[in-house]
Specification:
5-stranded antiparallel β-sheet, 6-stranded antiparallel β-sheet, alpha+beta, globular, single chain
């Protein structure tokens, strides 16, 4: 795992940095360190150029650079420490805490809780956010007194003054006509900038437009590729259509690997949570885990991903509830929030935990500006993007595409109906679940609960059957009963609560120190479920 770890002594003004990827650079009394990639004028991580840009533009440097990054700037002459982040809060999460005279910061929650005298207390209030949205909004985390750098902010430290300072991120949005002309050029540039030097290029491939545009780009450039697709034994499975896509190119340069989530995957949930550090929960974490684990096994250290294309090319991308301080904020319903707090985090944090660096072309700043200029043309379905892909991709590939992506269905994680029933009963009868329900303000009668469940099942089933028919075929349609759909919805919800129950055991229990020293191999998810069933059932 690549980490950044820093400690700043507020009394002596001494800064110590340990950055696995890059060292730091000092010039003119300014110390500079980058975690990630900072691009200025098509040059990546040139420290002298970065320091010059900081001296010229100050905090406005965030509008002069591209990339996904944390940028540490320490001005020794003024004794001021600044930590900047890109518009998406970087690909990972920056945590920080204050202990005595020290400010500590890192992208690894396990390093944070390993600090001497660090109190490990679960943040029950933040967990309400987590079960609603899949992440904790703002600067709080699932642990008390450990904070994270919130969207659109920098960390500013001067003497005893440590605050998150709001930054003004700006985009030079062009008109529709000019943006349409630049679309291919800017997207190709973004892919080129996010292509690692290693050959062959490795990327995940789905049945949708986004990853297939990237794959087609590499085929046109005659690059060797290693392709990975993860399917599920129950639910949406894109492996069949991906095989057709790869075969359509007919090139020996393309090497396809197929992986599957099964009922064996659930046993890895503690390891998934340990690696993510409580930053995100979404059902796609199981696919991400299987993919990252296989990449590490194969000795692969880079991956070019198509993440966040749906959100960036959504007409409401700039209407973030977080960005606008919306009092009626509804979490990941906002495209930006879903991209920055869920999609990119579950990919990048998981990959990094296995020693893999993710590259994300669609999150390139110049391409984002082009996409924003086409907001009306893209609408909520990426209409312009899909139109252009249909013009560029070969006919035999285009006929294989299916626009709805795949992800793990919770049914695939359980071997029998009895296991599913036991799981939901254990979670829903736990004091933790009951307490969170009260904190969420859930006070419904039995009749209201039944009516709500029926309405949600109907709403959920509208797109569910269509997606599965398009990817699985007639044989699996038999599973689409109201009972199946209702249980799927229930399993998804309860898995979020179960995630938090395991997180609390791993990160803030009497056994946390043991886990930090010896690892979590001794934690068996099935034994844990059995232990809870004896307590609560």
């Amino acid at each position: 795992m690549n980490t950044i770890f820093g400690q700043f002594n507020r009394e002596t003004k001494e800064l110590q940095l340990n950055n696995d990827r890059y060292s730091y650079y000092e010039e003119n009394e300014i110390i500079c360190s980058v975690y990630g990639d900072v691009w200025i004028e098509n040059v990546c991580n040139d420290y002298a150029t970065i320091i010059k840009a900081y001296q010229d533009y100050g905090d406005d440097i965030v509008n002069c650079i591209e990339g996904l990054y944390y940028l540490v700037i320490y001005d020794k002459s003024a004794n001021i420490l600044r930590i900047y982040q890109d518009y998406f809060t970087s690909a990972e999460t920056l945590y920080y805490t204050i202990l005595d005279e020290y400010l500590y910061f890192t992208n690894d929650m396990k390093q944070m809780i390993s600090l001497p005298n660090m109190e490990r207390s679960f943040n029950m209030r933040a967990s309400v956010d987590f079960v609603r949205y899949g992440f904790v909004s703002g600067e709080e985390t699932l642990l008390q007194n450990i904070y994270k750098l919130a969207p659109f902010h920098m960390l500013f430290c001067e003497k005893e003054h440590i605050v998150q300072k709001r930054l003004d991120y700006r985009f030079d949005i062009l008109g529709e006509e000019e943006s349409a002309k630049k679309w291919v050029k800017d997207l190709n540039r973004a892919i080129r900038m996010n292509t690692p030097e290693k050959n062959p290029v490795t990327l995940p491939l789905s049945g949708g437009f986004d990853s297939n545009y990237i794959f087609n780009y590499y085929n046109r450039k005659e690059k060797n590729t290693r392709l990975f697709t993860v399917g599920g034994v129950d639910g949406i499975d894109e492996t069949k259509m991906v095989k057709k896509i790869v075969n359509a190119y007919g090139s020996k340069r393309n090497e396809l690997h197929l992986l599957y989530t099964t009922n064996d995957t659930l046993k890895y949930l503690p390891d998934i949570i340990w690696r993510l550090g409580g930053v995100v929960y979404q059902r796609g974490i199981f696919l991400q885990y299987e993919l990252a684990k296989e990449l590490q096994r194969a000795g692969i250290t880079t991956l070019v991903c198509g993440e966040c294309a749906d959100q960036i090319m959504h007409e409401n991308f700039l209407q973030s509830g977080l960005l606008n301080g919306n009092p009626n904020y509804k979490g990941p319903e906002n495209p930006y929030d879903f991209a920055a707090s869920i999609i990119i985090k579950k990919s990048a944090v998981m990959l990094n935990s296995f020693g893999v660096k993710g590259y994300y072309p669609y999150m390139n700043q110049r391409f984002m500006q082009t996409a924003m200029g086409l907001a009306k043309k893209n609408g909520i379905t990426k209409a312009f993007h899909c139109k252009m892909c249909n013009q560029i991709l070969p006919d035999e590939v285009r006929r294989c595409l299916y626009k709805n992506g795949g992800a793990t269905y919770m049914h695939a994680l359980f071997a029998t109906e009895e296991e599913k029933t036991l799981f939901v009963n254990v979670v829903e009868n736990s004091p933790f679940y009951q307490e969170l329900q009260i904190m969420k303000g859930v006070k419904k009668t039995k009749a209201e609960k039944i009516r709500h469940a029926v309405e949600k099942a109907k709403e959920y089933s509208k797109g569910f059957a269509r997606r599965v028919k398009g990817t699985l075929g007639v044989q699996s349609i038999r599973t689409l009963t109201p009972k199946y759909i209702k249980m799927e919805s229930r399993l998804r919800r309860d898995m979020g609560y179960f995630y938090l129950m395991i997180f609390r055991e791993l990160f803030c229990s009497d056994r946390t120190y043991m886990y930090l020293q010896e690892g979590i191999d001794s934690f068996n998810v099935y034994d844990y479920l059995e232990e809870l069933s004896k307590k609560y059932l």
